[in-house]
Amino acid sequence: MDDLIADFQLGGQNERARAARTPNRRNPLGGEVVTGDAYASGQEPEIRIDTSVAHPARVWDYWLGGKDHYPADVEVGDQLEETIPEVVLWARADREFLGRVVRHVIGEGVRQFLDIGTGIPTRDNTHQVAQRLAPESRVVYVDNDPVVLAHARALLNSSSEGATDFIDANLHDPDTILDEAARTLDFTKPVLVTLLGILEFSVTDEAYTIVNRVLEPFPSGSFLAIACPSNETNTEAMDEVARKWNDSGATPIIMRSAAGLKRFFEHMDLLEPGLVPLPQWRPDTGTLYADRGMDFYCAVGRKP
């Protein structure tokens, strides 16, 4: 395990995002760039960041070996690693899962993507994977974390044939997400909705209603991908992870069981292999840790 983590952290340091700090409504490659109201004036919105409390995007960045984190994030990240040493592997496995899902739905003809809970940009963001295979792909990113907003420009670099958009919105306001996503996405065509590492921050059963509302306007053939930590197999340790995180003063999280995670797909057809640890969802030759179990689960469903 120590060797795996050392290799992971070194790789993260070499691959950290070099995100610009100011928004840009024009893509130098000529692609369409649509930005949210916060950027309508062409000026960077005021962003206030509280560095005294751990922030999920910054802790994730710390585990990836990035540079956009503060002592509070390091402290909590280290505390969680003491309980579950593999937590530092979750971030890389999550990014690889995203790539595999995007490639799969591209093969199914999907060219539209709604990425909710984007996080700090890093390598192989959704639009980069999608437009590499299908340059006409249209991608909408959604996040309201100040740290992510500070990096939003890195997500607005579309191919010449496609489009990207960034929406400053909260998962708990699905109507705003859909209203603003309609600027870029055609709701008569299938879409992939990704909710990776975000549903654990929606701690009540309202999360199921929100996901159903987001999917409601999209047609048959649309997909949903989720990834969440779970207390299904390592209950005591994962509940301790949740306790340590919640005690830090950060945005509270909840650990759901396998049944709780599968419930997000009750109106969808769950793709094989079903709900599995991150590296075990259709691994390819480049998948790291493909033979490992993880307490971070994922699944993909198709709207019938």
How would you describe what is shown here?
The chain has 304 residues and is an alpha/beta fold. It has one domain (2-16, 32-41, 49-302): 3-Layer(aba) Sandwich (Rossmann fold), CATH 3.40.50. It has ten helices and nine strands. Strands 1, 2, 3, 4, 5, 6, 7, 8 and 9 form a nine-stranded mixed β-sheet that branches. Helix 6 (146-149) links the parallel strand 3 (138-143) and strand 4 (163-168). It is globular and about 45 Å long. The N and C termini lie far apart (41 Å).
Write the layout of secondary structure elements.
Blueprint: H1 2-15, E1 32-35, H2 56-63, H3 71-83, H4 87-107, E2 112-116, H5 126-133, E3 138-143, H6 146-149, E4 163-168, H7 174-181, E5 192-196, H8 206-215, E6 223-229, H9 235-247, H10 258-262, E7 269-270, E8 276-277, E9 296-302
Parallel strand pairs: 1-4, 2-3, 2-5, 3-4, 5-6
Antiparallel strand pairs: 6-9, 7-9, 8-9
